[in-house]
Design brief:
By secondary structure, this protein is α+β, with helices and mostly antiparallel strands. The protein is built from three helices and three strands.
Length: about 110
């Protein structure tokens, strides 16, 4: 049978390395989702000459489904609390979408 492993021995694969699927990591993610709200997930593709993929998740089940279906061995997963990273005071910009006349509301519920 052909070995379809994506491993590069140059990367020193080891059973004791950090795993996003460890109970400790999953519990941290679950707690943030329950206590703070959404998380931002970044997937850095293992030896994939491409930019990272990013998504926002609001439920633990969505994260588990993503990890079970969308990632491959060796991918690096980074997760941040949306509430701690995306704040009004550190936004790059904030604007509104104009209507067909080029007007935007000066007031609003937001």
């Amino acid at each position: 049978m052909e070995n379809l492993s994506r491993r590069s021995e140059l990367d020193e694969w080891h059973p004791d390395g950090q795993k996003i699927t460890s109970m400790e990591n999953l519990e941290v993610i679950r707690k943030v989702l329950e206590d703070e709200g959404p998380v931002i997930l970044e997937r850095r593709i293992y030896r994939g000459s491409s930019s990272p993929e990013r998504a926002i998740f609001e439920s633990f089940d969505e994260i588990i489904t993503f990890l079970e279906t969308k990632v491959l061995p060796g991918d690096s997963i980074w997760i941040w609390s949306y509430d701690k990273v995306c704040r009004s005071e550190n936004a790059l910009t904030h604007s509104k979408i104009p209507d067909e006349d080029g007007c935007v509301p000066l007031k609003g519920a937001y």
